[in-house]
Amino acid sequence: MGDHQRQIDIRIDPATEHDVAALLKLIRGLAEYERLSDRVVATEESLHAAFFGERPVAEAVLARVGSEPVGSAVFFLTFSTFAGRTNLYLEDLYVEPQWRRRGVGRKLLARVSRIAVERGCGQMNWSVLGWNEPALDFYRAFGAEPVQDWVGYRLAGEAFKRLADRP
Known about the structure:
Blueprint: H1 3-6, E1 10-14, H2 20-33, H3 44-52, E2 59-65, E3 68-80, E4 85-95, H4 104-118, E5 124-125, H5 133-140, H6 157-165
Parallel strand pairs: 4-5
Antiparallel strand pairs: 1-2, 2-3, 3-4
């Protein structure tokens, strides 16, 4: 890659209601990369409600080159009872394949980190698929460390519904 390609103008902006279709496209791109396309059931309507509805539960920033969205970061606040303060959870960080290794992911991660610091968060957390060596290397380069002490769990499907139905 020449210097000209490395000096592209990358803008990171908060997602707006007009960006819902672009967000869904980027989410589908991430799911395809992670070999999880069959799990995407999100729609423009469900994303609009989640990001911009009466009670938003997530936020996003978009990376743009010109007017073209080329990447996104989706995040939300969590709370640590031990620390008595909020943390930020990075749900997704995705860059379109043709824009990777050009500083887009770094700028997205830096923006989300800045948002976390500005909001008084004590830390930022996320999950990475164990086979995704490029992502693992990317995060390690910033000093991120794997969480060894905790085991993630998921309750979904019928088991989730059964528990919810218990008195």
